[in-house]
Amino acid sequence: MPMHKTDAFAAEIAWTDKEQAATDSMAEREFQLLYDATAQPILAYLTGVTGRRDVAEDVLQETYCRFLVRRPDAMEIAEARRYLFRIATNLLRDRWRRGEDTPAPELADEGSSPDVNLQIDVRRAMQAMKPRERELLWLAYVEGMSHAEIAAATGLGAMSVRLLLYRARRRAAAWLRGEGTSDESKPM
Amino acid sequence: MDVVRALRTGLWSAELRRHVESCASCREAKAVAEGLLHYAASLQGEQVPGAADAIWRRAQAERQAMILKRATRPLIFMRVLSLGCVVVFAVWLVEGLLRFDLREVLHGVALGGILPGLGVAVLGIAGGAFYLLHEGKRQRGLDVAS
Fold first, then answer.
1. Which residues in chain B are closer than 8 Å to A10, comparing Cβ atoms?
2. CATH number for the domain harbouring residue A122
3. Interface contact A21, partner B, CB < 8 A
4. Smallest Cβ distance to A122: which of B1, B39, B75?
5. Same domain for A133 and A90?
6. How remote is the C-alpha of A110 from its chain's centroid?
7. How many angstroms separate the CA atoms of A34 and A80, rounded?
8. How far is residue A158's CA from residue A146's CA, in Å, rounded to a whole number?
9. Distance, CA of B82 to chain centre
10. Which of A31, A47, A175, B106 is the most exposed, fewest CB within 10 Å of its CB?
11. pTM value?
């Protein structure tokens, strides 16, 4: 069969790829390390913010794919982790803008121990928050990010982060004290 | 932030403890952070992320597709440009032939040389156009099949 021009290009690319196979194999090992170190907290973030495991798993895959396709220059794990949170946050925002997700937190493992009750309270509080508030609360209190880091991950200004986080914390605290109102419970 | 750091690390200084007891805002932050950290710990215990190699392979495939698309972009441009040239040349040729005074040629000596030349040019244009279009179609067919 005669070789077409596009086939010739593909063959050339394949040859270049073979040349880079050793580098890729090293990169795959590095990726595995990065994934092991970051996937769990990012998945928890996505589940906590969306309230949906299926969506969280989809977005997690998409997050890492985007990261690999862009293949940024060598990064420290901490820097890569912030970058991954940023990609994940952007993907979540895209989904919300398209109206693809309606948060539906899963209330599982119900029981009567104080820990389980606290978890249920937190899930309810998160359900009552706006998506942006959930992101801010999670990044600040679970990931321990500074205002500047949250600003970088969410695309907000540092001052806006400070103000929005303060409001979100007040609302969450009110919900945890059982003082949440139905007006506040509408997620936007 | 000190409260969050202390909660995350478990390292509470006596001073920070005293401050949190007396500061309503920090107490509030502590309550929220404690709740969220419990919730996060429970989620991390319940869920296991998918395999990394599947994501790696998917990303590699996407990257390859992107590289191939970039590499074939000049080729596609040249193909479109070639087709454009063929069309322009064909129009120019047809227009020229329509204005051609055949009697003038019949009295001259050039007819024997011109007609085979024109024939070769027309065949060349038709063949080239057919090849370009045919390969484009074939490539699209392969893409659909794959």
1. 68
2. 1.10.10.10
3. no
4. B39
5. no
6. 26
7. 8
8. 9
9. 23
10. B106
11. 0.68
